[in-house]
Amino acid sequence: xxxxxxxxxxxxxxxxxxxxxxxxxxxxxxxxxxxxxxxxxxxxxxxxxxxxxxxxxxxxxxxxxxxxxxxxxxxxxxxxxxxxxxxxxxxxxxxxxxxxxxxxxxxxxxxxxxxxxxxxxxxxxxxxxxxxxxxxxxxxxxxxxxxxxxxxxxxxxxxxxxxxxxxxxxxxxxxxxxxxxxxxxxxxxxxxxxxxxxxxxxxxxxxxxxxxxxxxxxxxxxxxxxxxxxxxxxxxxxxxxxxxxxxxxxxxxxxxxxxxxxxxxxxxxxxxxxxxxxxxxxxxxxxxxxxxxxxxxxxxxxxxxxxxxxxxxxxxxxxxxxxxxx
Length: 326
Known about the structure:
By secondary structure, this protein is an alpha/beta fold. It has nine helices and 14 strands. Helix 1 crosses helix 9.
């Protein structure tokens, strides 16, 4: 079965990673690529390493009302730029929005694929989680589901590679000379992922309040990867947390529960998420850790996993490759 796929925003990091995964997918065929500044150029001009079968595909100017026949459209557009355009895409066409405009929007399934796969399968519109939520919520989900931690007392300290800022930011503060040998917090108290994380915490906990949530992201001088270190209140032991995660993710192909603190490099170039825990009941403290590749599980990898679900394919299709090492 051949599934015709399009990618809008193919010139960005998320769109480029989606292209790489679709190119190696056993059922997907990339037949449409769209962008803005890159429109009119061949794919190989933007990505010299593009597969030969895609090299001459011309990047078109994005127009949601002039699409070819597609089964699935991946939209990798900056937050705030996709809602109006995607509303004009024909209803029969399935969409996975890698950007942020449709997370918890009416008519869109929230695509936390390893937690709620059954709720995604029948959807035609799926909103991919953000990269930080993909790391943090993967680690928190088992603890919240089994009520091992207080949902109203969670502090998330997250570190991300520079590719998380996107390819087209056009800001010198993300240049090599600015970020090399540097570590900086940003988005304090008002990061765009806060509402999404808070809503999902409440949903996972069965309605508990998340008003005490604190989330602080940091930019670190590496290209890819996210580590979320999460401080919670709870009486569980380390073993109870690990056991809860192993039960919660039993049979899930992309979640690795490890008794060692995870490294970002473990997930590089993959759709894997690594979760681990350390707890001290005497101090009412649980530390949860989640690691993803921000362009993999944090963006295009999870998007392909969601597309597999809504197309009735095995979740692992096109995503079984090992992470890049070293």
